[in-house]
């Protein structure tokens, strides 16, 4: 009872003195303090009575305890180190506790006592020494022991329990047996004063959140033998600039290095096959990463929000980059992707604003939606022949992009992957490309029936569709601010979704179909086009039907005239009857369609003009007189043809 009464008096005194006096050791002189006290326990549960008065009077710098300690003894150990059995703050002046020759043993069932009551996943729990884990330093043993600076662990310990040193905010030194193999979750979390951890050389397993919020941590030595790095191991460690991962590492858990906000360089060791979700996410100081040749996949969010990441060394073997993998890596540059890479998922490199010198390998097949959205320093894109799909807005609003080279590649192009690229001047494809062609830098299907993408930075303010164009893809002219005049083909049949949205400077639109082509979507195909100012030129006699159109009705509608051929007629035009067809060559640039009629005015055949030439089918026509009509921008011109 002597020790309990003395302990009670000490508590009263501590409550009465000031906060400063508490941390000064009750103002005793250096001579009054005892350097080191050794307490030998004859039996478990006897620490309270065995500890001398100087320990209870808080006049000891170093305390060594030998013998067997049960849960009740551990409750006393916690008090000496700065926290009571409820995990509350209880400061003392003890600097070091040495348990190297102590043994932690379970309680007898008749005298079972907890060493701490603490919350565990939202439930209050009493903690006892686990009789089934004789080599374990118990869970939360030193939890919130806020004043102890140095701890020496028992030599027989082989694993460290969950949260064993969590919130030991003053601890600067921890001596562990080199034979420890397992350290469980949160063991060293919020050890704010620790600057260095040299982990046991025989360690193989490390738990989640192991060093989380260790604000002054500068060095961790992870031994060879550790094969897995678990969740958020180094979260919020702002002074830890370099982490050397052991060569034995074979697995990184999701979020393994999440929030390691001091990390500046990182080399992933050979043997790692996958970087899982959030693996290196939110490492805000990270500048340089080297990836191993064994890496096959970079998972979702793997490097998201690494704002200072400048360089990533990719190696052959990588096949897939996942969703948001490098999202918001704002200063990432010189991205050279390996030939082994096959797929890049949606938004993988979105908002990598400073990206330049992007190079694709020759094995790439698919690029997902918005994969490189807002990557402003890319000037030229060259795609490999292996490409199979470039998805919607994959390179949208890449403000520096000037040229796109498809070469021989014939990928599926969805919804204008290059919308809003205001500097884009031209698309380029090889002449023998099986699927695509270009006309003055504009991307068409091989037969010109589909208009896929218009280069937003094209210098000309006027655009005339190819005569054979029947439809546009989605977002084809998205926010083409410099476009003032557009001429539709006579063959035109359907709009893509929001095809002319944002073309606010359009002043003139010319259509050639007698019946209005209607927008099939709910959204306005001409959103932000000023219909009151923009003139719509329709075929003669069609103004009324266009006025009633839900797509065209709001425009300033005028009718075209059918006067003689305009200024662009070509005097070198030739008409030849080959027997199978009537070939009209050297046609003027303003002519878009040629028709063949009999003398009664009945149209017999029609052909679009391409590259100054049109061929009218005529194999079955008998001899006699016919009329060839050239339909141009400024009117029509007729020629009489006699077939023998």
Describe this entry's structure for a reader.
The chain has 6 helices and 45 strands. With 644 residues, the protein is mainly beta. The strands form 12 sheets. A 7-stranded parallel beta sheet has the order 18-20-22-23-24-26-28, with no helix packed on it. Strands 1, 2, 3, 4, 8 and 10 form a 6-stranded parallel beta sheet that branches. The longest helix is centred in the N-terminal third of the chain and has 15 residues, at 2-16. The protein is rod-shaped, with a radius of gyration of 40 Å.
Features:
644 residues; mainly beta; seven-stranded parallel β-sheet; 6 helices; disordered N terminus
List the helices and strands and how they pair.
Elements: H1 2-16, H2 19-23, E1 34-40, H3 47-50, H4 53-56, E2 60-69, H5 71-81, E3 96-98, E4 102-104, E5 116-120, E6 123-127, E7 136-137, E8 150-152, E9 159-160, E10 173-175, E11 182-183, E12 196-198, E13 205-206, E14 219-221, E15 228-229, E16 251-252, E17 265-267, E18 274-275, E19 288-290, E20 297-298, E21 311-313, E22 320-321, E23 343-344, E24 366-367, E25 380-382, E26 389-390, E27 403-407, E28 412-413, E29 426-429, E30 436-439, E31 442-445, E32 450-453, E33 462-464, E34 471-472, E35 485-487, E36 508-510, E37 535-538, H6 543-547, E38 556-559, E39 574-577, E40 581-585, E41 591-598, E42 603-608, E43 613-617, E44 624-632, E45 635-643
Parallel strand pairs: 1-2, 2-3, 2-4, 3-8, 7-9, 8-10, 9-11, 11-13, 12-14, 15-16, 17-19, 18-20, 19-21, 20-22, 22-23, 23-24, 24-26, 25-27, 26-28, 27-29, 32-34, 33-35, 35-36, 36-37, 37-38
Antiparallel strand pairs: 5-6, 30-31, 31-32, 39-40, 40-43, 41-42, 41-44, 44-45
